[in-house]
Design a protein that fits this description.
The chain is mostly beta strands. It has 3 helices and 10 strands, in the order E-E-E-E-E-E-E-E-H-E-H-H-E. The protein folds into 2 domains: 98 residues, Immunoglobulins (Immunoglobulin-like, Sandwich), CATH 2.60.40.10; 60 residues, Roll (Membrane-bound Lytic Murein Transglycosylase D, Chain A), CATH 3.10.350. The longest helix is centred in the C-terminal third of the chain and has 9 residues. The model has no long low-confidence stretch (mean pLDDT 93). This is LysM domain-containing protein.
């Protein structure tokens, strides 16, 4: 495969502008990018090497009117420009968590290391002054926290931040 996607990493917490980076080569130096969750799809492209593997970087903007219904999105980068042939085109798909779907006006996150005696509701109260927002923290860490009642000292959780 001639596509190595270094950013985003699986389960990264992303904003409405998703940054892409990696190493790749593609026919005519162009990779297609799509962001989808099954209800809507946003597409774009990035420029990469056309004769040899090169580093690339780019962004894809998610418009405010995107019809996403889930916070878990899939970012797919593919070389589908070559066409023809029996084999499918090279493709990399990475699941990410879309911050604006879990916290309005999402701009980023801070890391928090779970302490002995912490609960998600106590952490939510500390950062949002609202214990009921524990689900925001759970969704931002869905790959780590399946049950909101089970967190462990030493776990590093992402705490979404809004403007």
């Amino acid at each position: 495969m001639n596509i190595e996607l270094l950013q985003p990493k699986p389960f990264d917490l992303v904003s409405s502008t998703i940054m892409l980076a990696g190493n790749a080569v593609a026919f005519e130096g162009t990779l297609s990018v799509s962001v989808s969750e099954g209800h809507d799809e946003i597409t774009g492209f990035v420029t990469v090497g056309s004769t040899s593997i090169r580093q690339f970087q780019g962004t894809i903007a998610i418009p405010s009117d995107a019809a996403f219904q889930l916070s878990r999105l899939f970012v797919t980068v593919s070389d589908d420009t070559a066409g023809g042939g029996e084999s499918p085109p090279p493709m990399v798909t990475v699941p990410v968590i879309y911050g604006p779907m879990i916290l309005p006006d999402y701009v980023g996150f801070r890391n928090y290391t779970v302490q002995r005696g912490d609960s998600l509701s106590a952490i939510a109260n500390r950062f949002y002054n609202d214990r009921s927002l524990f689900r925001v923290i759970q969704q931002a860490n869905a790959h780590l926290v399946e049950d909101p009642n089970v967190i462990f000292p030493g776990q590093v959780l992402r705490i979404p931040v809004a403007d």
